[in-house]
Design a protein that fits this description.
This protein is an alpha/beta fold. It contains 21 helices and 27 strands. The structure holds 1-deoxynojirimycin. The site of 1-deoxynojirimycin has 7 residues, from loops.
């Protein structure tokens, strides 16, 4: 449709029709036998009104959605098709590693490719919009939704978020095989206090702008068609009714022009927060703050029309919101073809096809992080006991892989049997150190212990106060490693866990996260040596829960402990019972080969506002195997009008090197990279000295200095 036709359509709609376009209910409302007595009754939906609404969430399948769309077109007075939205977070039928794992790939192109593949599968199943990516920065692994984040770092998070948006949408979300991307949760959901889900977030405005908003902005700049509000309050205002966040920052400052949707019942919950009187008040606050679509509350459904008629909400504001919804439908091509790519035939061809399963396997290999290796990996042992219930579990794809075809999930056992067919395995899927497990461990040359969390242990509303392993698993490790020192620990889960004992005593530790449908094959490729590990941590691994929140990008304080300052007074910024530094730092991960870095070479050491410095290192593969290295660039601003972090990631490159091969890796440093929110909250770079680090992780001491003049 042309803009003119869209305007004419809008003009021809009644207020009630317009309001209906701004309501989204979930799939349970449609087609169930108890429709009128069940969920619909609770929402006072007494007739076929559900079929006049603008969009639905959480339903899939070409057959079902085609049928539903016919109903929508029939019931809606102007035959406006519905948009079908769903959580396609890290794959659709074929699940890829969870986002925290994808972050660890340090490979935006891989992330783009997984999103593109997910879009192909999901669009064939009739889905138009995905509620992804989650751009929330996560620095506290007590929060179960770390799993859905690309991690603790604004630069990594922004690059991955943008890559994912591009992967879903391509050039145009209306193209075949594409879906529109809805980034979330605006804003600072990852900063929920104490890591408890839905809790308040308290951040200084500077920290919000400096760290937390960057990835959302990257999504806007990558052209994401939609955004979702967050459940939490920020500065004591529920994000879903915060004009400052939604209008001043998201729309005016960031320039977001797409459709803004609330999170699930988040408008209704503002009453429970104590920030709105009732659902009518909540609806008025939300729409006036800029929320276009109300997801799964009855606030807009039962109040919006009246609010417009009473003048509390202006019709022009309503029109703006509806127009955004109509425009997105138009972009998706729904007025011409309301089913878009829905095709039962293509579902069969695409879902979990060989190519997608291969990508799932490859992605898991890129995302796995080798944390320790005394040389036992790649495996040479020929008789191995594999112990732990996770070795035979299919619950390893991730709690948001809600549509994944679990019948295709490759367990660790199946993967090891397929990839390492020359090894004699004994599998004991037990989480307690029973006699069988101990006997198997004793008689084997090596043990693989599968520990950590399955997909139910992590995700939404899965916060923990203690992120160490369960007692049973700890005992299992103690007793098994006592009888067989060649114990390799494979860690599953969606967050950094505290594993100091394992780090100390295991022969090797590898983080597999929740690797996805064919992910265990990727892990087996690494264990067997067919692939070399190249994942790097997207979040710091703490020693213990008490260190949280934790990030490498910390501040010196006046009395630093672990930063080489001489301890001339006994009162330091430290803990009496744990170090300040993490067990494994951000950016860290081992390979089967070794890399050597040259000192940093700069083409000049003075930077001007309109110039640039080229910084280069030569990286050499000094081992005898091919491998990939993530070359990471960090900058420290030595002194500022406000205190500056000890270092910040500004760029990275993942490179492949054959044995003995050497490559020069160059980065361009610009004044823009040095900008921050100064004492006046101006985004600017201040003149002075900077320390530049280029190396394999966030603790590298390969450094040099330059000045901004
Ligand atoms: C609630 C979650 O917070 C959000 O991330 C998700 O997209 C919606 N539910 C819809 O399922």
């Amino acid at each position: 449709m042309t803009e003119k036709q869209l305007s004419e359509l809008l003009q021809d709609m009644t207020v009630a029709e317009k309001a209906e376009q701004l309501v989204q209910l979930n799939g349970d409302f449609y087609g169930g036998e108890d429709f009128l007595t069940g969920p619909a009754a609770a929402f006072h939906l007494t007739d076929n009104k559900a079929y006049r609404l603008g969009s639905i969430l959480g339903s899939d399948g070409a057959a079902r959605l085609t049928k539903l769309q016919d109903e929508f077109i029939k019931e809606q007075p102007h035959h406006i098709p519905a948009m079908f939205m769903a959580d396609v977070i890290h794959g659709y039928k074929t699940a890829f590693p969870v986002p925290i794992a994808l972050g660890a790939s340090f490979d935006p192109e891989l992330v783009r490719e997984t999103a593109e593949t997910a879009a192909k599968e999901a669009s064939a199943a009739g889905i138009h919009v995905t509620f992804s990516p989650m751009a929330d920065l996560a620095r506290d692994s007590r929060w179960g939704r770390c799993m859905e984040s690309f991690g603790e770092d604004p630069c990594l998070n922004s690059k991955m978020t943008a890559a994912m948006v591009r992967g879903f949408q391509g050039e145009n979300c209306g193209d075949k095989g594409r879906v529109a991307s809805c980034f979330k949760h605006f804003a600072a959901y990852g900063a929920v206090q104490s890591g408890r889900d839905y809790n308040v977030a308290e951040l200084s405005e500077r920290t919000l702008f400096e760290d937390y908003l960057l990835a959302y902005e990257a999504a806007v700049n990558a052209g994401a068609e939609m955004a979702m509000t967050a459940f939490n309050t920020l500065d004591r205002i529920p994000c879903t009714i915060s004009r400052k966040l939604l209008r001043d920052i998201l729309r005016d400052k960031m320039g977001f022009e797409g459709v803004l949707i609330s999170d699930y019942n988040a408008i209704g919950e503002t009453v429970i927060h104590g920030a709105a009187e009732d659902s009518r008040d909540a609806a008025e606050k939300a729409i006036n703050s800029g929320v276009d679509i109300d997801m799964m509350s009855d606030c807009y459904l039962n109040n919006l029309e009246e609010l417009v008629k009473s003048g509390e909400v202006s019709e022009s504001l309503l029109d703006e919101a509806v127009m955004r919804v109509l425009k997105l439908k138009n972009k998706l091509g729904l007025f011409e073809n309301p089913y878009k790519d829905a095709s039962e035939e293509e579902e069969k061809q695409l879902h979990c096809c060989r190519e997608h399963m291969e990508l799932s396997r490859k992605a898991a290999a890129e995302c796995s992080v080798l944390l320790k290796n005394n040389g036992i990996l790649p495996l040479r042992a020929k008789k191995i006991a594999v112990i732990g219930s996770l070795c035979e579990s299919r619950d390893i794809v991730g709690s948001w892989a809600i549509f994944a075809d679990n019948s295709k999930t490759v367990t660790l056992r199946a993967a090891l049997e397929e990839v390492c067919s020359d090894i004699e395995f004994q599998f004991i899927p037990s989480d307690t150190p029973d006699e069988k497990a101990i006997a198997a461990a004793k008689s084997a040359e090596a043990v693989i212990l599968a520990l950590g969390e399955d997909q139910l242990g992590t995700g939404e509303s899965r916060s923990r106060t203690d992120i160490s392993l369960p007692e049973g698993q700890k005992r299992l490790f103690e007793e098994i490693s006592a009888v067989n020192p060649n114990t390799v620990v494979l860690l599953f889960g969606g967050r950094p866990l505290a594993i100091p004992e394992i780090a100390e005593k295991a022969a090797a530790v590898m983080e597999l996260w929740l690797p996805g449908t064919a992910g265990c094959l990727g892990a087996a490729d690494i264990l067997s040596g067919k692939a070399s590990p190249s994942g790097r941590l997207s979040m710091s691994f703490p020693y213990c829960s008490g260190q949280l929140p934790l990030s490498y990008s910390a501040f010196n304080t006046g009395r630093p402990k672990d930063n080489g300052v001489k301890e001339f007074i006994p009162f330091l910024s430290n803990y009496m019972d744990a170090p300040n530094i993490p067990l494994y730092p951000f950016g860290f991960g081992l390979s089967y080969t070794s890399f050597e870095y040259s000192p940093i070479a700069l083409d000049r050491d003075i930077l001007t506002a309109d110039g640039g410095i080229t910084a280069s290192v030569r990286v050499k593969n000094t081992g005898d195997r091919a491998g990939k290295e993530v070359v990471q660039l960090y900058i420290r601003d030595v002194k500022g009008s406000v205190v500056r972090p000890l270092r910040e990631l500004k760029a990275f490159k993942k490179i492949s090197l054959a044995p003995g091969e050497e490559q020069t890796v160059s980065f361009e440093i610009t004044e823009k990279m040095l900008r921050f929110y100064d004492i006046n909250m101006d985004h600017t770079a201040e003149k002075g000295s900077f320390i530049l680090y280029i190396g394999p992780d966030s603790t590298t001491e390969n450094r040099t200095e330059f000045r901004l003049v």
